[in-house]
Every structure is written in C-alpha cells, then in structure tokens.
Design brief:
Blueprint (H helix, E strand, L loop, with lengths): L9 H18 L2 H27 L9 H4 L5 H13 L4 H6 L2 H5 L5 H35 L8 H26 L2 H25 L15 E4 L15 E3 L5 H10 L4 E9 L9 E10 H29 L5
Antiparallel strand pairs: 1-2, 1-3, 3-4
C-alpha cells in the first residue's frame, strides 16, 4: 500500500513562485527593458555633466565619490520607473489575464505567492542595479576621474534598493486594490508628480518645502555649508543634498565620509539680475545635521514600505477570484 504523497513545504512553494515570477519577467523581457532604461538614464547623467560644462565654459571638476553618491545616476525618476516596470502588473496582471486561477490552484497560500512575487522583484532590482554600478564605475572614471571609496558600494546599493522598494510597495498596493495595471501605473505617477515635481517647486521657491520631507520621494533640497557659509548659486553647483526617501543611498555614503556634515534647508531668493549669481541667491530657512536627515529618511522609507506592502498583501489575500 503506497503512502500518501507529502505536501510541499513552505520553502519549496516559495521558491517555485520566485522561479515562476522570474521566468515570467524574462519572457516579457522586463529585465532587458529595465537594464536598457537604467543604462540610458545613467548615460544621460554622465553625459549631462559634460554637456553642462561645455555650455557654461566651466571645467568639469574631478569627483572621486561620484559612483557611490550618484544614486546609480537614476535619482527619483529612475527609482520610480524601475518600480513601475518591475511590479506594475505583478499582481494586477494575473487578474487581468486570468492566470491568477491556475496560480492559486497550486498547493501554496496566497501569502506565499505574494511574498514570492515581492522577493522576485527584489532579485530583479538587485541584478539590474549591480550591472549599473559596474557601468557607472567605468563611466565615472572617464568623466570624473579615478573613483574612491568603492568599498562603500554595498551600502549605497542597499540604500538605493530601499528607496526603490518604497515605490514598489506603492505600485503593488495600487495594483492589488484596483486589480488594474493601468491604475497602478497612473496612480503611482500621480503620487510621484505630487511629491516630486510639485514638492520640488515648493521647496525651491517657498517656505513650505519642509513638509515634503515626510512623504515618499525626493523631499526638499538642502545645501552643504562650506566653512559655515552657504555656497554661491552657480551653474552645476555641487553640495546639494536631497532629504527624501529617494536619497537614502547617497546620504548614507555622505554620512560615512563626513559624519559632521551640516545641511542648510534653503529657498531661492531674487537679487539684481545683473549680479554675479544671475539674479538668484540662497536664503537659509533652517539647518539640520546629515545624521538626522538620514535617520529620518530611513525610518520613513521603512514605515512607507511596511504600510503599503501590508495594504497590497491584505488586498491580494482578500480578493475574490472568478473563473
């Protein structure tokens, strides 16, 4: 008499979902598309410095820490696009195509399916970001000279992954609640526009930008003080520090390199148009240590990732499936 077949364990079911999701991404050429988009944005970041230097006639200064502080040349827009491409239809696409029925008929729980999809997105990002780092290490040396502190790359990569995971959780939550890939993409785009574009303008020209430090995105822009003084407004000026969740990686590296850094949160003011700064000046609103900016951004990123992931998981777990 044969013994009953044992049910697969949680680990085997989880790995099966991860394998399914990774193969699905390869079939849809998601990974290839992400790599191409990432390389295009990184190339634009590298070429933009050269173009700006040529237009202004200012020599491009060496930047030995470009690779570890450049957010992979992606910044907030790149992180947002990667999140959308990675998980826009990871959950909602299963409902739209009807593949959710055979998927959930397997001997695995919905929680296992959800966690497998989330982990697959993480692996896809990890592979893509690792390739981009190698590319930037070569391109950064050609544009900015020899690169230092490459041993900090794992920390920068970890911070960039955390920044992207915030947007992944938002896209997953919108897709799980609506079961529509279009709504997931457009809803996330609306959030990005509101926190990034609108928040960016307010942080530059008003006193209200501090509020956008507490929402997902780039936050407000601060400036590193030089000998206790604000830098002058010049084309391509360096020393800018973003306070939001999109800059965890670069701020983490900057903190390790300069733990006593003080950041002034400013707005743009207007002076005489014929002046040396082209009619603009920085007006300091308040100052914060970089350690506080980094700690707050990490805490907010973890809170937003946890909250939106729980919303996505709960919606997926409770969703009704019809044949």
């Amino acid at each position: 008499m044969s013994e009953p077949r044992a049910e697969p364990g949680w680990a085997s079911g989880f790995l099966a979902v991860v394998r399914y999701e990774l193969l699905w991404n390869l079939r849809k050429r998601k990974f290839l598309g992400m790599v191409l988009v990432g390389f295009a944005l990184a190339t634009l970041s590298l070429a933009g410095a050269r173009i700006l230097s040529s237009l202004t006639g200012r020599a491009l200064e060496p930047n030995p820490d470009y690779v570890v502080t450049s957010n992979l040349g992606l910044a907030g827009l790149g992180f947002f696009l990667f999140a959308v491409v990675t998980v826009m239809n990871s959950v909602s696409g299963e409902f739209e195509s009807g593949t959710i029925v055979p998927l959930l008929s397997k001997p695995v729980s919905r929680t296992t399916v959800f966690l497998g999809k989330l982990f697959s997105a993480f692996l896809t990002l990890l592979g893509t970001y690792s390739l981009l780092t190698v590319y930037l290490a070569v391109g950064g040396r050609l544009v900015y000279g020899p690169q230092n502190n490459l041993h900090l790359f794992p920390l920068a990569l970890l911070g960039n992954l955390l920044s992207t995971l915030v947007w992944i959780a938002i896209v997953l939550a919108l897709g799980s609640v609506s079961r529509s890939s279009l709504i997931a993409a457009l809803g996330a785009f609306a959030v990005w526009m509101g926190t990034g574009v609108v928040g960016g303008l307010l942080s530059v020209f008003s006193d209200l930008g501090w509020g956008f430090t507490y929402v997902p995105g780039s936050g407000t822009t601060g400036y590193t003080k030089i000998d206790g003084q604000l830098p002058s407004v010049t084309p391509g000026m360096r020393g800018q520090v973003s306070t939001g969740t999109d800059s965890v990686g670069s701020n983490l590296v900057n903190y390790i390199l300069n733990p006593s850094m003080e950041v002034a949160i400013c707005k743009m003011g207007f002076t005489h148009p014929g002046g040396p700064t082209g009619g603009f000046q920085l007006i300091e609103l308040y100052s914060e240590p970089l350690s506080l900016i980094l700690l707050r951004a990490v805490a907010l990123a973890l809170v937003y990732f946890t909250a939106f992931t729980l919303v996505a998981w709960y919606s997926f777990k409770r969703a009704q499936v019809t044949e």
